[in-house]
Design a protein that fits this description.
It contains 4 helices and 2 strands, in the order E-H-H-E-H-H. By secondary structure, it is α+β, with helices and mostly antiparallel strands. It has one domain (about 5-65). The longest helix is centred in the C-terminal third of the chain and has 13 residues, at about 55-65. The protein is about 40% helix and about 20% strand.
């Protein structure tokens, strides 16, 4: 069974600076087969839900509403 997923990160997250992250993100669907989307929040760091609670909540609600019932 695969679980639907949404990837949310800040474009200033220090994790994205790791050498292999560009390749990992480009191939994320290989590792997360039920990936429904990717959201990179501009100007946001590692703590997306604290830094951008409104945008993260809106993305989560949209993601959940898009799931089949």
């Amino acid at each position: 069974m695969t679980v639907p997923a949404l990837y949310v990160a800040g474009d200033r997250d220090m994790m994205l600076a790791f050498p292999v992250m560009d390749r990992l993100l480009a191939n994320l669907k290989v590792f997360v087969p039920a990936l429904r989307g990717t959201l990179l929040l501009p100007g946001c760091g590692h703590w997306t839900q604290q830094e951008r609670p409104g945008e993260v909540s809106a993305a989560m609600i949209e993601f959940i509403r898009g799931l089949p019932r």
